[in-house]
Every structure is written in structure tokens, then in C-alpha cells.
Input
Amino acid sequence: MAAPTEFKPTIVGFLCNWCCYGGADLAGVSRFQYPPHLRVIRLMCSGRVDLAFIFRAFAKKADAVFIGGCHLNDCHYNPEGNYDAMGNTLMAKRILEKLGVNPDRLRLEWVSAGEGVRFAEVMNELSAKIKSLGPLGSSEGIAVAELSSRMQTAEDLVPYIKLVERERLRVPVRTEEGYRKFFGSEEFDQLFNELILDKLVMSRIMGFLRKKPAAAMEIPGSLALEPSEVARHLRQLTERGLIKFDAGQSLLAAV
Amino acid sequence: MAHTLERAIEHAHEAVGQRSLRAHDDQRGDVMVVGGGISGIQAALDLATSGFKVYLVEKTPTIGGKMAQLDKTFPTNDCSMCIESPKFIECDRQPNIEIMTYTEVVGVEGSAGNFKVTLNKKPRYIDEDKCTGCTVCVEYCPVKIPDPFNQNLSLNKAVHIYFSQAVPLVTYIDETCLYLQDKTCSICQGVCENDAINFNQTPEKVEVKVGAIVLSPGYETFDPKLRGDYGYGTYENVVTSLDFERLLCATGPHDGHILRPSDKKHPQKIAWIHCVGSRQVIPGGNTYCSAVCCSYTQKQVILAKDHVPEMQATIFHNDIRSYGKDFERFYQRAENLPGVKFVRSYVSIGGEDPVTKNITIRYATNDAGVKEEEFELVVLSVGLNPPADAKAFAQKFGVELGPQGFCKTDPVNPIETTRAGVFISGAFRGPMDIPEAVMSASAAGALSGQMLKARRGRLSQERVYPLEKDVTKEEAKVGVFVCRCGANIGRVVDVPAVVEYSRTLGNVVHAEESLFACATNTAKAISDTIRDKGLNRVVVAACTPRTHEPLFRDTLREAGINQYFFDMANIREHCSWVHSKEQADATKKAKDIVRMSVARAALLEPLDEFSLPVNKAALVVGGGVAGMTSALTLAEQGFQTYLIEKASDLGGMARRIHYTVEGLDVQAYLNDLKKKTYRHQLIRVITDAIITDVSGYVGNFLTKVKSKGRVQEIKHGAAIIATGADEYKPTEYLYGQDSRVMTQLELEERIAGGDEEVRKARSLVMIQCVGCRQEDRNYCSRVCCSGAMKNALKLKSVNKDMDIYVLFRDMRTYGFNEDYYLEASGKDVRFIRFEPQDKPQVEAVEEGGRSVLKVTVTDPVLGKRLAIDADTVVLSAAVIPSAGSEDTARLFKVPLGPDGFFQEAHVKLRPVDFAAEGVYLCGTAQYPKHLSEVISQAYGAAGRALTLLTHDTVVASGSVCEVDESLCVSCGACITSCTYGAIEFRETKRGKKATINPVLCKGDGLCNAKCPSGAVFLKHYTDDEVFGQIDAALAH
Output
């Protein structure tokens, strides 16, 4: 009888050319060993990592996504894209969490081109963490197909998120402290909940109802949402005329 | 004189004729650079880029020099090898640089413009053209020898590559080889698959003719073994700072673990001893200060603490000389680490514990007297000596050495030696840090270029490629080349299986393996296959694109297809080397990486690296010594130069300087320089000028200058910022209230003007660090300590009975200026140290009927308050950024550092460049500096500008952004994200749309991640290409 096969996660890594990719190279040159789970995509700057890349990777069932950039204030580029990578990561984690994906599956690290050891250490640690979580969906207790479809919803919402980020969620100062403060503030919390997380839930409800009309009762169970939250969104969606209630069949349908 | 020389050179050219100059087999070049460290490399690159053929001669088996041995560099802690090694490859690829390693100069005949250099090429016993650097021979070699690269702290083989980034990346065989000893082993020959081992090699005599020579032999670290300083050589746990540098390094003897020699344990308590071999008047030591040790020690402390956070560090020091840009903060960073103690004391070694091998150090403290303390490791911060063979070396080249044993130069031309046509670059002139060495390299490039300007471009070559085939209408036909890299990949990854797998992937029409994809012959074969099989996309699965992508792109160009149709699958650094024990998983990963790469390759588009014309004129901002020197260097080489000065006359700060510490008459020098500048027919001096606007980009700037009510527009290709600095106007110590209190510059003007009051003063007190090294100006002004010595010595020479007191915090007479500090001490100038929290006080009082300035200060050694009655008080006022710096920075879109001085592109390796291309920097605008340093940097900035101006066009990367206007929603997100100013709105029929200036776009792609509609896209890293890779990564 075959032994149960060991779980070997797939981690999609976005590495900036100037620092983290160099760190990964140096880990190689120095022969520091780490588990073979990372699949690297080289970009010129960690700030190039689009929110859509992250959600696409999870939609395609990646077990984790890794973003590696230059240390803060060491960015190769004048606009310091690693701050943007930090902002995007913090937002993506909130969205992942809301959609039921363990946010630990998304990791951002600063690794300089001289930190081969650190790169290997980060990989060792991240691999162990993801192994302990198991395949996407297992630690979440949600079917991977369902998570994948939620991630697809998130990917589709990225253009909207970018607009909101630009209009309402721009971080005022480019310092680590400034970013932490901003993303930790109640104001951000409230805006993010209202502008993005609610929108995500509505997108999911709409997506669900677009497939086929359904009774209001079915929605919370099917989308793993609180009934009260569903009720709130249904009211809004009805008010906006995006869904309608067929009193005859007691079913809700997307307009 | 200069004219006759140039004419002689031109005559020589005509006589020789161009045809023979171009002959390939003729060993003829323009310039020979002797010494392949960082400064030699930079000089060679600058010269080769500006149209000269260069021979780069290095005596060791690789270029790189001392910098390659350093772990990190201060004050940024950049990885030394990471920043230096790209320069190695640049040299290697530059068609106008011929690298000759393991080669020494035997003799030089001839004269400027026409030297014949005889060289001895030592046998490597390796055929350089055949060796691929696979290191199989190294594995099999049975002989272990101390590794010189690792300071003999670890072992290597008798055949080995000097270090893994060496250029050339080939092995050499040490004389300890058993075959060379007694022919008892030749296994390396047996295992070499390329027949590269050649034991029949003998020393080879080579003759090379060149017009100019640049000497860059560098320095040697002081060897404490000779005198057994601090038990070095006797006690195992006493190491030098260069030894420690290797211990810190990941490629060092213990892979970056700091293990002490005696028991290979992590030392928890380390002492550093400063000034070992430096600032010593005893035999065997050097009187001068080595200029770099204070800062490198702080670097080592910071890094050691980083490795072992609980480690305790004690630094025994004399003055802390943090005189460079950002050094003061670096010092504070080290000092503020927990468990780090700076102790100002001379020390002696108490002895070694016979059991623990710990070292006892005896030192003095102000409060507790003499103390003894035990340390587990002692690091000697050794100074910099002239190269070991400096005398013989100088003799070969016919140049003179100075009293310190370094090369003799003229203070107003620190780049020229005593022999015409022989220039100097780097630390052979005296102790200096890396940026100084790099500046002087560019300076040497500029001056040798000036001498040989008539032959520019005659020997240099541009590469010619076949015409590019248009394949845009074809379907993607991908060829995959999987490299074994000898055993490096092949031993872990099942290469044939990867090749087989590649054939199953969509769009792949050809797959094969190679032993070394990068070997010159394989590259040629790949190029043939592209042509024969009609490939239009290429994937090479091998090592990292960071080093090898340029090579393979070049291979595609050779094959006549667009170079951007290439993708590299990194299955070595990211796979075989890091998963060496998991062969099956590594093979699976290699297949995944290739699949991702093929998916990406199929989507790649051809890109043009567009050429931009270069306007041949230069604009120099600032008419001080720096600006004038740069302008003259450019104009002398035939480039129209506009010199913009805000005042009504040239001269800048130097107008207030009358003599240097070396005795130069600055005013005479300055007047001569001004005369040359005003008279030069290619220099347009615009005085009373203000720059009102700068637009354009590298090669094509347009600057508006307002002068005397008229605005003129100047077109230029390059700009040099040389706006200088100002003197701080003190508010301390009664300055401005009492005429007997003055700044050093005012004192100098008074001495030069014959002011009797100052000359006849009975007692004069100088106070250092006025207005700097404090919270609001957290930097050292670098020049004031030496400036104070200069004025003190001058005063002593006119009035030897004058009592002169210097109240200081640290005397920072770095480098050879230390000798003037010594001289001043010898002439009874008295030095009293004070602590910053207990500054001296100055009051005007009547003392015994005499009106004096009463200066009181606490002597920390005596712990007593001293009072001095002074006739004159001189303040060493800070050097501060010039008033208009912020405007200039804004106009040219270049940054200022935290202290308000201009921020160069890279502290170490691009000290006179800005990150913005086409704009350069020199003089005190960058940071306070001495006159000779200003001159060196000004030549350097001109040299860098010449690498641009000597070309008709500049090439910009094809990987830049573009906008699909039909998708643009005019939100402006991209514009805000781009601080390069590369994106603007333009009016179209459908309203305003974002548009990219590809010249300003640096290709980071931040705007892509901000654009809500996918309208802006970074070519070569488009969303589709990345999605393709993501999908492929997960399509297993």
C-alpha cells in the first residue's frame, strides 16, 4: 500500500530584479538549501505586482504567494515601488481574510541582493508555514474550487479597488511607520470595509444570483456569510435595482 | 608644451597610418590601465566607452582588487561583490577593453603618446579560451592550499577559480600543483572535458604600444606580523580587519559565520583596535592617517552585531574620523547599538590565556585609571600602505614616489604623475575610500582622453550585427536550450528529462541540451540553430539572467532576431544549487520553470532599443574651481561648454582661499584658471546668471538662463552641477558682536592681507566644529581640522611666539594631512579636547588692564576647567549647502541628501553621476572637500560627461511603458505614481489621455499596478506575460 503522499505546496513568488532576485541568486551561489516549492516570476520592481496577480495565483490554486522586494528606502527606483508593494500586500491580506483565505498564505519580505542567507531562511520558514497550513482550502475548511471562484471575484474587482485606493485610500507618507499607522487606523478600517469589502460581498451575491435565481435563505449557507450581512446587502442591491424579488416563486434574481 | 605634444602625437598617427592601427594582430592600444581593482576597472570602462582601446593589466588571476574581498561597504552596508561584479562583466563585454590577468609590467619605453610596454604573462597552465569555469578539475584536485582570497583562513585547491565571480571565469594552477612539483598527478587533465589544462605553458613576453598609461595598483594593508603588533602572528585570536572582512562574508572561510581561529567558536566579546600601523611615529609604522579605518571598523561592528546580536563590542580608538558624507550618522549608528562601547585609549596586549586563548587588553580610562579586560577575539584595524613593490613599480614606469611611499602628484593636478603621459587613479596616490578612487579613475580617464583626443575612435570598434528579421507575422516557434553547466545543473537536475519534457510544451519546435550554454562555441551553435530551424523565440534554461541575459540577447542579435524574444529559465541558482539533495523534486521544479519560461516566451514581443541623438554641448552650473576645471576639460576635448555663474565673476569660494596646507598659492592658481576659462574659445561664460527652467532629458536638455535682463535658451546634451557650498555664519561665541572673533576663512583673508592685529596676537584660540556635528547639522565639515592646521602653521611661521590653542572634539586631519597636525603639535600648538555637551565659553573681559577674550573649556583628561586669555578667537565654521541648492535640485530633477548636499547616484560606485542620466556632480555641492579633492572630482565629472558626449546617440532600453489610449480613463493614477515625470496628459480628440515619454521611463512598471483600466503597460512585463507565467506555474 502506498504511503500517503507528502504535501508539496506550490508557492508563486514575485521577486524584484534588483534585490530579492539577487538575494535568491546569492542563496544559490552560496548553496544555501531550501525546499523546492517556490516558482519565481521576475519583475523589475515589487511595486509592479498587481493585486490581480495575487488573486489570479490563488484563483489558480496556488498554496501561497510570495512577494520579495528591496528593503524600504533601498528601492532601485526613484518612486520607491516597495512601498506600493507593502500597501498592496496589506490590502490583499484583508481581502483574502474576508474571502476565507488564510492571509498567512500571502507573504511580503524585503531581501537585499546581499542577503542570500536571509532568502533561504525566509523560504525555509515560509515553506514550513504553508506545509503546516496544508493545501489551499484545507486550513480554511472551504473547498478549493469555492475559494478559487471567490478569488476570481476578487480579481475581477481589482480595477474598482485601484480606483478606490487612488481616491480614498492613498497613504499620506512614505515611511514604514506611516504605512503601519495608516493601515492600522480605524479610519482605514471603516473605509476599507465600506468601499471594498462590502463591494466584494455584493459581487459574490450578484455572481451567485446570476447563475440562477435563489431564495434569500440559500445565500448565507452557500457563500458562508452571516445572514444579517446578507440581508443588509440584499436590501442595498434591491434599492439600487440590481436584483429583484419574484414574489410568486419567492426567489431573488439578478437584473 | 601641451600643443607640441599633441602635434607630435598627430604626426605619429599620420606616419603610422590608420590601416596598421586597425590591424587586429597588432598589440596596439590607446591606454594601458595597470591594476584591475575598482579604480582601474572604472578608468578602463570610461575610456573604452568614450572611444579608446584599453589594455587592462592585472597581476592576479582576476580583476576585482581589494574591493572584491570586502563583505560590505560603508556607510550604506551595500554588498561589496554585488555592486562590483557587474562592472567585471561590463569590462568583459566591452569590445574596446582587453583584459590581461596574471600579467605584470616588465618595463616601459618611449614617451607620452608613444609608449611601448613590455609585459610578462605568467603561466596559468590553463587555456583561457577552452576553460569554461566548470570547476570539475577543482573537485578532483587532491592538493589543498591556503586560499589567498580568504586571507589564507580557509583552504582551496591547487587548481581553482580565484573567486566565483572572477573575470575571466577560468581556473589557474598554483605552483603547489603536484604535476608542477614532480609530475606525480595530472588528474585535472583527465577530468577536463574541454582539454583546457596545458602544463606546457611558460611565461610569455608581450609587447603593447599605447599612448597613455593609467596607474591603479591600489594599496596593501599594513602587515602587523612584521613587528608582531598586538600579538598578531603569535596569538591565534588576533586578526586583521581584512581577515575579519572575510570572516563576515557569506563566501568567506566559514560561510559568513564569525568563528574565531583558535576553536572555531562564535566569539561573544570582540575588541577592535584602531590606528594599527597608522598615525605612528615609531619605526615600521606610518605617520599618516589611513583615512578609511574608523568607518570600516564601525561597519564591521554593525555587521558583527547583525550576525550575533548579543555580541559585545569594544572599540579602542584615538580620534574618530567620520569626515565623509553620512559617516557621522554611521558612527552614531554603531555607537548606539546595545553592547557596543567606544573607548578613547591607547592599548597594549596583556597576554593570551593559555587555555581559553582569550586575549587580555590593557587600557586607560579617565575615571578608573588603567584597566585590564579579556576578549575572545581582537580585530586590528590595519592601515593602508603603498603597494608592496611600490619602489620597483615606480621605477618601471619612471615615476617618482612621495615621502610616504605613495605616488607623487601635484596638488593642483592630483591625477598626473611626474612623467608626462602617465596618470594615476585610486589609492596609489594615498589612502582613500572607494568613491574617491572611482572619482579619480574617471578623472584619469578624462585626462588621458584629453591627451589622446586626436586618436579617439580610431582603434575602438562598434559591433556589427546582421539585419533583424521581421517575425511578427509568424507563430511563436520556441527553441529551448537546457544547460548542464558541467555538473552544476546536470548532477542534480535530470537534464535529458527536462529536454524531453520541453518538447511536449506548446509552441516548442526545438529542444536540446548543452554542456555549457555560455561557452563561446555553444553561443555560436545556438545562433546557428536559431537560423537553421527558423526559431523566433528562445528559452535558455541555465543560470541567472542577472549575469547572463546580456550574453544570450547578444546571441539572438547575432542570429538576426530581436533580442527581446529571449527568456531565461533560472534552473541553477534557483534550483540545482539550492535543492541539491532533492533530485526528483529539483527536476520537477526545473520542468515547471521551463514551462513558465516557454509560456512567457511565446507572448514576448520584439522591442526597439531606440537611439536618441546627443547634443554635443555641455552646461556647467557654478563657476568655482570645480566648474571651471570641468568646463576646461570638456572644452579642451572639443566640446562647446556653457558655464553658468550666479556672481559677476568666476572663482567661487576659492576667491577667499589664499594658500593650501601644502603651500600652493591659491590666488595665482585661481587667476590662471579664470584666465584660461574666460579665454577658451569653446567656453561661453555667463555671469550674473540664474537658471529659470530646465526641460528635456539625457542628450537633449533645454535650459533657460537669465542674465542681465536677457533670457537665453541653451541646448545641451549633458549638465554638470558644481554649485559649491557656503560658510556657516556663526551665532555662537560672540561672533558678529566682537570683531576679534572670526571664522577660519576670515582669519585667512586677514593673514593674507597682512593684518597686524592678527599677526601680532599673543594668544589665539581656535574652536572647531562650530555649527556642525550637532543635531541640526549632523555631519562633519571635513575640511576644518586641516584648515585649522594650515592657519596655525601659517601664524607660527609669521609669529613663532604666538600661543595657539585648538579646542577640538576629534582632530580629523585624515590622510596625509595628519602630518600637518603632527607638525603643529611639534611647534607647540596646544590641543584641548572638549565634549559636545560641555562646549567652550567665550567672554570679552578686562584682564590686568588688557581687554581680552576669555575662553574657558573643560579638559576631559584633567577633569579641570581651563581659562585662556585670547586676543583672537577663530571659529571653524561649518561648510553648509549653497543657498540655491534646492532650486537647482528642483530644476534638474536631482535629489538632495539629508544634509542638503546633492545626492549622487551611488555613494560608492557612481560618486559623480546622478541617478538621472546625463546630469553629473562635482565639488563641494556634493559634500565639503579640499581643493585637490575638488579638482580630482571635477576632472571625474568631466570624464563621465565625456562618456556620453563622445557618442552621437544614446541607447535606451526597449522595456518601457506605453498607453493604450482607448482604455485610458484619464484618472491620472499613473502620473502620480511616476516620480520620473515620464507620464503626462495630452489632449486628444477623446479628451486628455496619459502619454509616456519613453526616454524618461525607467521601466519599473509601478504605473501598471496603479492603472484601473489596464491602459498603461510595461513592455516585456505586460499583464498578459505575467498572467501567462502564473497560469503556467500552476498548470501542473
Remarks:
- The domain at 478-603 of chain B is CATH 3.40.50 (Rossmann fold).
